[in-house]
Each structure stands twice: as structure tokens, then as C-alpha cells.
Amino acid sequence: MTMLDRRSLLLGVGASLVATRTRSAPAAPEATSPPSKATQLLAAARQQVGVTLNYDPAYSKIPFPGGDVPREKGVCTDVLIRAYRDALGLDLQALVNADMRAAFDAYPKTWRLAAPDRNIDHRRVPNLRVWFERQHAALPIPRDASGWQPGDIFTSIVAKSATHIGFISDQPGASGPLIIHNIGAGAREEDALSDWPITGRYRWAI
Fold first, then answer.
1. pTM score
2. Closest CA to 77 of 121, 133, 124, 118
3. Is 130 inside a domain boundary?
4. Of 105, 134, 108, 103, nearest to 202 (Cα)?
5. Is the backbone peptide bond immediately before 150 cis, with ω within 30 degrees of 0?
6. Are 65 and 91 spatial neighbours (Cβ–Cβ below 8 Å)?
7. Residue 107 sits in a domain of what CATH number?
8. Residue 150 lies in a domain
9. Is residue 28 part of a domain?
């Protein structure tokens, strides 16, 4: 065998080994993005379904900050309060209380209080609406269901005068996105956005 033939043979063997190693090398795993804050928030709200089974508006003295009534009960605002704490570590009890102490006159006087009450203020829809507005979180109400985004907060009027609040889900329904809320039978995710007149839309911290 000539020197040229020997060199060609060695080059061919080397190329074959490189090709074999290339074919057998495992594919690198694809990088995955962490879930968005809206996704985390909705997941925390959804985890309340089947846990919060009752609607109970009774006044309760609770710890501060981070206070809560037992999770098997609550009102519509508790769905938001618990989701923001669980998903994002944001405590609406403490945040609303701090703002009400700084600007008490900006908040409704419906309950004829002379000072903030950290046990209940954050659990009242009218107070949350003012707080979200003061955080520049208010958005125009969409003209149709397609204008809502997952993680949006809606407020509405039920039974002519009662106030209500909940999340816009990332799951579609027959008449628009589903909502996650508690309107009387515990936390639920259901197709009910159009059941009551919408009074506000907010998007905060996501």
C-alpha cells in the first residue's frame, strides 16, 4: 500500500468515527420558558376550586399581615387575595391597609368607618376597586368577550346592588372566557362572565 493510499484510509476512518459520534450524541433538551405571572396567578386561583366550598361574608378578626379566614369558606374577594399571596407573594390585606391609612378619604364611606379596619377593608369589592384605580391598574371594559385577557380582574353588579369580583380565566367558554370566582357556592371556574353587568376591568402585577 502506498503512503497516499494509507493516508486516504486513515482519513476515511476518522471521518466515519466523527459521523458515528455525531449521530449518537443525544439531542440537547429544549429550553422552556417559566410560566407567566398571569398563568401562575390563575393556577393559584384554580387551586381554590374544591377547597373553598362555602360563601361566608361574616365579619372575622384575622391576623395582620397575611390574615385569612379558613380556606373552606370565604367571599369573592378572597379568591383574589389568596391567589395573589400564593402565586406572587403579594398581600392585598397589607397593601390596601397601608393605602387607606395614607388616603382614607379616597375610599368609600359605605360602612361609616372613622378609620381603616385591617380585618375587612381588603375583602370589600368597592375598596379593591378604588385601590386598583389608585395603582393605575384600571383598563377599559372590552366591547366584546374577545377583548379580555387571562388574569384580568372583572367587577360586576349582581342582584341589582351587590358587588362582585373575579378573574378572567385562560380557558374558553361558550360565550367568552371562563371566570374563576365565588358567588355563593365556593370557588368555581365557569362560563358566567356575561351573567351580570360588568362595572370594571383591572390588571395588576402581571
1. 0.85
2. 124
3. yes
4. 134
5. no
6. yes
7. 3.90.1720.10
8. yes
9. no
Q: Quick check: helix, strand or coil at residue 71?
A: coil
Domain with 123, as residue range(s), is: 37-202
Select from 52, 31, 18, 28 the least CA-distant residue to 189: 52
**Rounded-to-integer distance, Cα 143 and Cα 138, Å:** 15
Using DSSP, how many helices (H) and how many strands (E) does the chain show? 5, 8
Q: What is the DSSP string of 81-142?
A: HHHHHHHH---HHHHHHHHHHH-GGGS--TT--SS--TTTGGG-HHHHHHHHHHTT-EEPPP
DSSP structure class, residue 25: S
| Total domains present in the chain | 1
Q: How far apart, in whole angstroms, are the C-alpha atoms of residue 75 and residue 172?
A: 24
Are 153 and 204 within 8 A, CB to CB?
A: yes
- Kindly provide the b/e burial profile for residues 114-138, where b requires at least 16 CB atoms within 10 angstroms of the residue's own CB: eebbbbbbbbbbebbbbbbeeeebb
Residue with cell 362560563: 191
CB atoms within 10 A of CB 182: 26
- Give the tens place of pLDDT for each residue, 25-73: 556 667 788 999 999 999 999 999 999 999 999 999 999 999 999 999 9
Contacts of residue 142, Cβ cutoff 8 Å, sequence gap at least 6: 148, 201
Asked if residue 14 belongs to a domain, the reply is: no
